[in-house]
Amino acid sequence: MIRHTTIEAKEETRVSRPEPNRVHDPNTPDSHWSSLYKVGGVAALIAVLIFRRWLGVEFLLFRAMFRAMGIIRSGPRTMPSSAIDWFALLQTNRLVGLTLLNVFDVVNYLLVGLIFLGLYAALRRANRSYMTLATALGFVGIAVYLASNQAFSILSLSDQYAAATTDAQRSILLAAGQALLATSNPNALGPSTIAFFLVTLAGLIISAVMLKSGVFSKATAYTGLLANIFGLGYPLGEALAPKTAVVPIVGISLAASACFLVFWYIGIARRLLQLGYGKPERIVRKE
What is the pTM of this model? Predict the structure, then answer.
């Protein structure tokens, strides 16, 4: 009886012992992070389909394109330039005013944070140091943007201006609104530009890691590289280009970046959701 028990114990030990010839690939993502993959994948889809960056610019573009057809009949055709214009817009069409103040970019940046978490989980074994650096840069950029977006502050000043009863109160509120607009101007080298630079730089590093990881396809990696390289043209153009050259450089770089960013997010969403639902963790590439 004792001998039989000893033999069973040895057999259980032999079964539980890891196979000596089994090699763990350090580049494969951890399947225990499936929930984070799913969250990151869904966030990428929402970011590309609903809460895209620069929705205010898209609104003005469609307002100009479809003006003759009457598809978008309300709202300004150009961006308001002064505090009094913003206050008037927010009182007549609050949703459009907040859109032009990039309030939906706040949601986009939060979604980008979830995407970065999913990508970190998928790529951390490919290059932990670069992924840690990229994630840190991304979250610093997101924090800077959340702290610098003045949409709700300007909305509050607009409501106070509408309720003001004296010219002195209105003058103070207008001055405060003008000061907030100066700090949140996307065409100036301020906090929002710095935030965009940090998030875009993080995306560039992540795309480079993607290219070598084998977790994402090369098409997704190259699309990410192009999206973020063109994206860097915006903050670098603001910082380095002469004032006369800023508008064309920024416009071209943002338009190109936005196109590639759509396909990059779709590729990210597709792969993260595959990982989240237990699909193979490495892509077999034909040499």
Answer: 0.78
